[in-house]
Amino acid sequence: MNVPKYDDDRLSASSLILADKMERVPTREIGAGNFVIGNTRIRPRVSTGPAVPVSFKRDQNLNFWMQVYNLGIDEKSKQNNAQIEYQVMDLATNKSVLESSESTAKLSPNADQVTLEKSMPLASLQPGKYQVTIKVNDGVSKQQIAESAPFVVE
Questions:
Q1: In the predicted model, what is the mean pLDDT of residues 69-96?
Q2: Band of the pLDDT at 2, cuts 50, 70, 90?
Q3: 7-66 pLDDT, tens per residue?
Q4: Read out DSSP for 3-52?
Q5: Are strands 95-103 and 82-90 parallel, antiparallel or unpaired?
Q6: Distance of CA 95 to the CA centre of its chain
Q7: Gap between the Cα atoms of 143 and 154, Å rounded
Q8: What is the pLDDT of residues 87-140, one digit of tens each?
Q9: How far from 97 is each of 55, 89, 91, 94, CA to CA, in Å?
Q10: Torsion, CA 70, CA 71, CA 72, CA 76, rounded to 10
Q11: Do residues 91 and 153 make contact, with C-beta atoms less than 8 angstroms apart?
Q12: Residue 25: how many CB atoms within 10 A of its CB?
């Protein structure tokens, strides 16, 4: 097992987790039990092999979860300023089927870490292979990272 090394000066992220279930847990269950990270229970979809993407049915939601670490904090305002872009790409046509963005200033403006939790219904997607990509562009530290994960809709 390769344990990642997180450098305090480098923008970094956890693994991008694709899940079929993601829900808040009661306060007494925070950080306890299987699949509980902080105040969220995440049931990840697990691939059957290294080259096999996880699969979802069209009547399910695609949930994704990721943490971003070491966001730059502006000295004057004491706030972060990163732009997060979400993209779902149809791998058969190489066309984007979803694009969205948000600012960390709205999520957690005074923190150097942010947790990204999103859910997307898959009913509008045709069966096929897709890829979700999350890009983080830190306006304070001028660093960028991206995490991607393929998935299949059946």
A1: 95
A2: low
A3: 678 999 999 999 999 988 888 878 777 888 888 889 999 888 778 899 999 999 999 999
A4: -----TTS-EE-PPEEEEEEEE--GGGTT-STTEETTEEEEE---SSTT-
A5: antiparallel
A6: 20
A7: 36
A8: 999 999 999 999 999 999 888 889 999 999 999 999 999 999 999 999 999 999
A9: 17, 6, 10, 9
A10: -120
A11: no
A12: 17
Q: Tokens 């997060």 correspond to what residue? A: 84
Q: Which residues pair with 117 in a beta bridge?
A: 65
Which residues contact residue 58 at a Cβ distance below 8 angstroms, ignoring those fewer than 6 apart? 122, 123, 125, 127, 153, 154
pLDDT band at 1 (very low <50, low <70, confident <90, very high): low
How many residues appear in the chain? 154
For 107, the 3-state DSSP assignment is helix
C-alpha dist (Å) from residue 33 to 26, 45, 46, 64, 126: 12, 17, 18, 19, 35
Q: How many Cβ atoms from other residues are within 10 Å of residue 57's Cβ?
A: 11
Give the chain's end-to-end CA distance (angstroms, integer). 31
